[in-house]
């Protein structure tokens, strides 16, 4: 039996918006209903709707003009089936990767300087589970995500953690079957170990170097896909 992938609310809302565009036969430049109207139409909270709009904007389905509204961007390059063309998804992942480099990269450096013994122990246990799942040939995407969340928590910066949490739906695209391949980034596993070792040794410079090596590896995988 295949695993059942968790679907986030904003993903469902994004699909509903795409269906609305298709059902109404909207064309490029047509305006979507206001945020207030869509909250009522889809019966969701404003935060889920905003995240869905951010996602659709990132993959060029809509464009947001501040103070004016939300407009259809390109109806011809998408069939509105909920599946983004590979090239657009690659561009989306690369854009989010830029954000990861800046924000998570800072979290890694801070974690190397601030991680408590308990947080290092939590990272150790996380990596032990990661290794066990990998050796058993099982899905490691969620334990991979858990590792990064523990590093962010270990940064000791509540504002940075909050900012990363606010974009978690976009961020998680790296861990929920990116480009339709749940094992796409499996080869980055060794970098988790070297990042952990640098954090455990309280070596911010080495932690940053290993994190950047991981990001470089992910970028190369995406571009060559």
UniProtKB/TrEMBL annotation:
Q: Which UniProt keywords apply?
A: DNA-binding, Transcription, Transcription regulation
Classification via InterPro entries: GntR_C (IPR011711), TF_FadR/GntR_C (IPR008920), Tscrpt_reg_HTH_GntR (IPR000524), WH-like_DNA-bd_sf (IPR036388), WH_DNA-bd_sf (IPR036390)
PROSITE patterns under this entry?
Answer: HTH_GNTR
Q: Where is the HTH gntR-type domain?
A: 7-75
Signal peptide coordinates: none
**The protein, known as:** FadR/GntR family transcriptional regulator
- Organism expressing this protein natively: Paenibacillus gansuensis
Taxonomy of origin reads: Bacteria, Bacillati, Bacillota, Bacilli, Bacillales
């Amino acid at each position: 039996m295949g695993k059942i992938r968790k679907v986030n609310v904003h993903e469902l809302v994004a699909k509903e918006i795409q269906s609305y565009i298709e059902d109404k036969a909207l064309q490029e430049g047509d305006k979507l209903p206001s945020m207030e109207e869509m909250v009522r139409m889809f019966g969701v909270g404003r935060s889920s709707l905003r995240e869905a709009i951010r996602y659709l904007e990132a993959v060029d389905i809509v464009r947001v003009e501040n103070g004016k509204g939300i407009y259809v961007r390109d109806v011809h390059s998408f069939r509105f089936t909920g599946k983004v063309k590979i090239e657009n998804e690659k561009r989306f992942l690369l854009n989010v990767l830029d954000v990861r480099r800046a924000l998570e990269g800072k979290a890694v450096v801070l974690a190397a300087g601030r991680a408590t013994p308990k947080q290092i122990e939590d990272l150790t246990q996380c990596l032990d589970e990661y290794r066990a799942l990998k050796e058993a040939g099982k899905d490691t995407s969620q334990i991979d995500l858990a590792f990064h969340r523990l590093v962010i928590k270990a940064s000791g910066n509540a504002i940075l953690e909050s900012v990363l949490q606010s974009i978690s739906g976009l961020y998680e695209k790296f861990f929920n079957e990116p480009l339709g391949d749940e094992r796409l980034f499996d080869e980055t596993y060794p970098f988790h170990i070297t990042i952990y070792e640098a954090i455990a040794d309280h070596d911010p410079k080495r932690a940053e170097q290993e994190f950047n090596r991981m990001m470089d590896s992910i970028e190369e995988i995406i571009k060559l896909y």
